[in-house]
Amino acid sequence: MKRVFIIVLDSVGVGELPDAADFGDEGSNTLRAAAASEYFSMPAMEKLGLFHIDGLDEVRKMVNSVTDKPEGTYARLAEKSRGKDTTVGHWEIAGLISEKPLPTFPNGFPKDLLDKLEEKTGRKILCNLPYSGTDVIRDYGKEHVETGALIVYTSADSVLQIAAHNDIVPLHELHRYCEMARELCKDEYGVGRIIARPFNGTYPDYKRTADRHDYSLIPPGPTILTQMKDAGLDVLSIGKIIDIFAESGITDFVRSHSNAEGIELTIDWMKRDFEGLCFTNLVDFDMIYGHRNDVDGYAKALTYFDEQLPRILALLKEEDILMITADHGCDPSTPSTDHSREYIPLVACGKKVKSTNNLGTRTTYADIGATILDYFNVPQEISGTSFLSDMMK
Fold first, then answer.
1. CA 147 – CA 134 distance, rounded (Å)
2. Which of 218, 220, 219, 230 is nearest to 379 (CA)?
3. Which of 375, 153, 193, 135 is closest to 275 using CA atoms?
4. Exposed e or buried b for every residue in 10-38, given b needs 16+ CB within 10 A?
5. With contact defined as beta carbons under 8 Å apart, do 331 and 318 qualify?
6. Is residue 347 a contact partner of residue 323, using CB atoms and an 8 Å limit?
7. Is this structure's pTM higher than 0.85?
8. Residue 390 per-residue DSSP state
9. Residue 48: in which H helix or E strand, if any?
10. CA-CA distance, 163 to 213, in Å (whole number)?
11. DSSP string, 131-194
12. Measuring CA to CA, which residue among 75, 55, 51, 10 is closest to residue 363?
C-alpha cells in the first residue's frame, strides 16, 4: 500500500529567486534569517539533508552542521508561476502553473466592487488599504465595534480580507459575507483568496482568533489532487489545504488551528490505512511569525517542528514517502512584512528513498506533483517533470 505525505512548512523559503528584485525581495532568505536566531535548532532536518540543499552553504556554516552523509533526498525548487503567495505556490506544487499573476490591489479595491459588497452585506466598509492584519484591527477595530462596518483590507498578495469582531459579527455571518465576496471577486477582481479574519477582545487589546477561513478560486486546471481522486486514490487534507484548492480533489479533510495541532493530526492520520496522498499545511510560520517579522518566534516554531519530526519518521511504512517542502518565502528579517519570492526546499525520505542524494535545483515546484503521480502510476495531465527514478533506491 503506497502512501505519500507532503508537509508544507508555510513560507519557509531557502533563498531569493533570480527574479526576486522584480518583486521587491532581493536578498531574502527565510531559512537563513531564522537560523541566525539563538532559538534555532533543526538536527532532525539536518540529518535528512536540509542544509545540503543548493545555496545553503552559509546556513550550514551558521549552524555548524557536521552531517556529511544525509539520510534523505533533497533539492531546491524554483517557482515558475508569476507570484509568491499561498494559492499560487500550492497550486504549482500540485502541478498547476499560473502563467499570469493573480490580481493585486496595492491602492485598495475599486469603488464599484465595494459598493456591490456593501449592498450584499448591508454593512458599510472601513479601511480598503493594504494592511498588516494585527495593525488593521488596532487602527479600525474601535470604529468597527461602534458602527458595525466591516474592515476590508488587502496585502501584497492576491487577497481580500474581511475582519470583524465576534461580538459584532458572529462567525457564521462573517463566513456568509466572505462567500458573498467570493461570488463578486471574479475575472479582473478574481483574487486568489477571500479570507475571514475574526477577532475578539476590547480596545485597544484586540486579538485575532485562530478561526480564519479561506475561500479560494477553484483551480482552473487539473492538479495531483483531482488526478489522484479520479484514479480512485485517497486524497487527505490537513489544515488549510482544502481551502486553498476550494475542496477540489479532496476525499477527506480536517482543519487545524496551529502547527502543533496540524502535526498531531498528521501523526494520527499516519496510523490510518489508506492508499494515496496526505497533504498537510503548517501555517504558523507564515501567519504568526513571518508576517510579524518575529525572527525568534519563527526560529522557535521551526525548532518545535524538528523536535516532533522523529515521531513522524517512526510511523513511515515500507512504501511510504515523506516530502517536506514550502510554498514561498516570508523572510522575517527584512523590512517587508509580506511574502518573499524564494526557492522552496524539498527534503524527502522513506525506506525506499535514496540517501545523500542531492537533486540540485529544479525549474518548477510542479516537479513534486509529477513525481507523486509517477509513484502511483497515474498518467500525468499536469505540469512538471518527475524525479522519481532519481529519488528511489
1. 20
2. 230
3. 375
4. bbbbbbbbeebeebebeebbbbbbbbbbe
5. no
6. yes
7. yes
8. H
9. helix 43-48
10. 11
11. --HHHHHHHHHHHHHHH--EEEEE-SSSEEEEEEETTTS-HHHHHHHHHHHHHH--GGG--SEE
12. 75
- Domains, the chain, in order of start with CATH, read 3-99+218-391 (3.40.720.10), 111-216 (3.30.70.1250)
The x, y and z cell numbers of residue 234, run together, are 485517497
Q: Measured between alpha carbons, how far is 136 from 117 in angstroms, rounded to an integer?
A: 19
Q: What is the reported pLDDT for 210?
A: 87
Integer-rounded Cα radius of gyration of the chain: 20
Secondary structure of residue 324 in the 3-state scheme? strand
Helix (H, G, I), strand (E, B) or coil at 304: helix
Report DSSP state, residue 334: S
Q: How many CA atoms lie within 13 A of 390 on its CB side?
A: 14
Q: What is the average pLDDT across 196-219?
A: 95
Residues belonging to the chain: 393
**For the segment 213-269, what is each residue's pLDDT rounded down to a tens digit?**
999 999 999 999 999 999 999 999 999 999 999 999 999 999 999 999 999 999 999
Render pLDDT for 47-102 as a digit per residue (tens, 0 to 9).
Answer: 999 999 999 999 999 999 999 999 999 999 999 999 999 999 999 999 999 999 89
203 backbone dihedrals φ, ψ, rounded to 5°: -60, 135
